[in-house]
Amino acid sequence: MSETFDTIVLGGGIGGYTAAIRAAQLGRTVAIVEQDKLGGTCLHRGCIPSKALLRSAELYAQMKESESFGIIAEAVKLDYRKVSERKSAIVEQLYQGVQYLMSKNKITVFQGVGRIIGPSIFSPRSGTVSVEQADGEILNIVPSQLIIATGSRPRMLPGLEADGQYVLTSDDILRLEELPQSIVIVGGGVIGVEWASMLNDFGVEVTVVEYAPRLVPSEDEDVSRELERLLKRRGVSVLTSAKLLTDTVERGAEASQGPGVKLQIERKGERQQLSAQAMLVCVGRQANIEGIGLENTDARVENGFIKVNANKQTAELHIYAVGDCIGGLQLAHAAAHEGIAAAEHGAGLKPTAYAEHQIPRCVYTRPEIASVGWTEQQAKEKGLQVKTAKLSFQSLGKAKVLGETDGFVKVIADQATGDIVGVHLIGAHATDMIAEAALAQLLQATPWEVGQTIHPHPTLSELMGEAMLAVDGQSISF
Q: What is the DSSP string of 449-467?
């Protein structure tokens, strides 16, 4: 039994369902194959549940400091079960929304395990998807365009396996009904520092072990250093330039100090022992490309990810791939944009081209981090002569009103052209403020042009305008 569609999407995460919606908008017949739930990692195991928890953690921390606002809140207590229930309710509401969008756009959803097959009686070229449904029935669906959007999963260190109790992945920790009293987080990238910030706010004793010389090493160095300073001020132990010795990890009954984990790290040529109730491993994500039938196509895999061209096409031009399975920034909004581009190109359009560095990057720690463009070091490595400005939130009226004066805005511009080449924020609501900088860079604006935009007072956005003016020494209030 077989059915034919203009576009078939293998994987129903944000990259996949966005591609499907855009293809349907263009008048194409569309199907999605999803083995789990529509929404993928972002909705069920990533962006949304973790940000719901982060919001509860932030509010809990703020309530404990409410006396500074003249509000006495006695006996503030944390009920993590209710925190988790709120997270699950938000996820369920959004999940229902995704299902509604499938119905609204007349997208056929096949629930089951999909595998790409080669040339067959169904099609003379590879790309047909064989779907094994829950009842065991096999259905073959044939596309004109196939979009692979199978996402990713947490990567583990060689020789170290997660057990869901003592050694956890970011998926595992979302399922915990109770928080540990102490935790070692291996990996100080985006996911690691978000969990460090959150768990610290919930009252967990947190130690972060990072192999690189600084936290979030993909961010501007000034931002990394400021985040480390602020986390340490809150009591987080940060150990950079540290290597986990995986063969030393003891867990559960093995740990000599009782239930929990014991491990050793190597730092500055010396070994150091750490122990905690649990260990969270956040060392990146790997593509879900095994068992999907790639070997039945001419699509190539490089460094564990599907290789695509600028149009998101594989070596077989009717087969596209988007999202985490192609590597790159592995961000939900990047996957969505890639899905739209693939759907449009498959329909014969010419989607807007974009450079990876023009994609905003957000880290939802307290305070938040957001950036777009190149770091100062990257700009210099590209041979640019740069001019910069860095202004602190400490002197901003709205920041004082909010009681959140940590952090700064840093602007990097090209001296030769005057164009903005990078904007980096650490501070309250940084993830909301970065969109202005992303638009400015897309339009190849200069700092002066953004500075001439009237920013309302009192707002946090004023600091963006002032920092832009400060690049040329024209800031009014700083």
A: HHHHS---SSSTTHHHHHH
Phi/psi at 151 (5° precision) = 70, -155
CA gap 12, 48 in Å, rounded: 16
Q: Provide the pLDDT for residue 127.
A: 96
* Domain 2-153+286-346 matches domain 367-470 at the CATH topology level: no
Beta carbons within 10 angstroms of residue 25's beta carbon: 14
The structural domains of the chain, with segments of one domain joined by +, span 2-153+286-346, 167-283, 367-470
457 is catalytic: yes
Do residues 347 and 26 touch, judged by C-beta distance below 8 A?
yes
Among 318, 424, 455, 457, the one annotated catalytic: 457
On whether the CB atoms of residues 129 and 146 are closer than 8 A, the answer is: yes
How distant is the alpha carbon of residue 126 from its chain centre? 32
18, two tokens: 């966005």
440 vs 432: CA distance, rounded Å: 15
Residues 6+ apart with CB under 8 A from 379: 386, 412, 414, 421, 422
DSSP 353: P
Please list, in sequence order, all residues whose beta carbon lies within 8 angstroms of the beta carbon of residue 268, skipping any fewer than 6 positions away.
241
- 167-283 in CATH: which number? 3.50.50.60
Q: Among residues 236, 241, 249, 240, which one has the least CA distance to residue 157?
A: 249
Name the nearest CA neighbour of 56 among 88, 78, 41. 78
Mean pLDDT by 10 residues, the chain (478 residues): 93 98 98 97 96 98 94 93 97 98 98 96 93 92 98 95 96 95 98 98 98 98 98 98 96 70 95 96 97 97 97 98 96 97 97 90 98 97 97 97 97 96 98 97 94 97 98 94
Q: What are phi and psi of 445, to 5 degrees?
A: -80, 160
Contact 264, 248 (CB under 8 A): yes
Extract the tokens encoding 14. 């944000």
Identity of the amino acid at 19: A
Q: What is the CATH number of domain 2-153+286-346?
A: 3.50.50.60
Q: Which CATH number is correct for 367-470, 3.40.50.720, 1.10.3720.10, 3.30.390.30, 2.40.30.10?
A: 3.30.390.30
Question: How is residue 183 written in tokens?
Answer: 């935790």
What is the H or E stretch that residue 389 is in?
strand 386-392
